Amino acid sequence: MIPFYHALALALASSTTDAFVSSPSYAVMGGGCAIPSSSSSSSSSSSSSFRIACRRPPPPTPALLFMSTAETSESSASSIARRQSTEGGGGGISDVFPPILDELRDVAMRLHTREQAPREGRAESPVRSTETHVPTHMDYLRFLVDSRAIYVVLEDIVNNNDKLAKFRKTGIERTEELERDIAWMCDKFDLHRPSVGNAGTTYASELRTMVKSDDDIPEFICHYYNYYFAHLAGGRMIGKQMSKLLLDGETLEFYKWREDVNDLKAKVKDQIEEIAKQWTREERDKCVNATADAFKGGGAINGYLYGGSAH
């Protein structure tokens, strides 16, 4: 038995400029996972499920559902540079407040447990269950189908609101890539494409009704940021593990980008800071206070990977 989630966390922290952690890295990998020996893995390469057994966690707290904003490895230099870039302009509201991404990170870290974030975590650690869950190809397909539903809604909102025009065609969009992956999974493993499940339907509905006026844009930005960036960093590590354990080394289009990922993240972060520069304290609070709901919405979809979401 190997404490796999520790190895994953170390790999994540060492390989990204933002140590974002989405719930699969903790709830799937952190539930107490056993990596089989080389002999067992070689004999089960055609299995329809992960060659990994995980103890199913109890119903997660919001922080466990979708942890995405733990930028623990971001250098102080980059943080200072971002602060300077947002505080320029001579007398704007941005001179009064820190960068919005710093505020989002702070509240996200407080939603982590001490185990996840020893210095800043405040949430209680759940009691682990010994029940095992072995994810299947269908579990993963459902995760992809529901994930695509959320990306469709996020893109629709951005494309239909001129105040969000800067977030169009950023390079981080995933709808087309996921559509190709879903078709590939169905063909490769002879699966029937499932409809969007309860997790995806619920969160997509919440997002679609979120932006009723410009006053709701700060709340939307929190969801946009958390959802995209969870998959841009922590999600990539999960994709690698799924590729090795479930897809015989195949990398899905979901985890491929046409530009350098760090460049894409930096560009979108700058765009978020730009839109937040003129927000009032009340608007910034509205953005920051949406973090737990963003974790909950995205985490429900991640639940397909560890047995926490019913279809």
UniProtKB/TrEMBL annotation:
Residues 74-95 are annotated as: Disordered. Its main location: plastid. It is found in: Plastid, Chloroplast. GO terms for biological process: photosynthesis. Keywords: Chloroplast, Heme, Iron, Metal-binding, Oxidoreductase, Photosynthesis, Plastid, Signal, Transit peptide. GO terms for cellular component: chloroplast. GO terms for molecular function: metal ion binding; oxidoreductase activity. Residues 1-19 form the signal peptide. InterPro entries: Haem_Oase, Haem_Oase-like, Haem_Oase-like_multi-hlx, Haem_Oase_decyc_pln. Coiled coil: none annotated. PANTHER family: HEME OXYGENASE 1, CHLOROPLASTIC-RELATED (PTHR35703:SF2). This is Heme oxygenase.
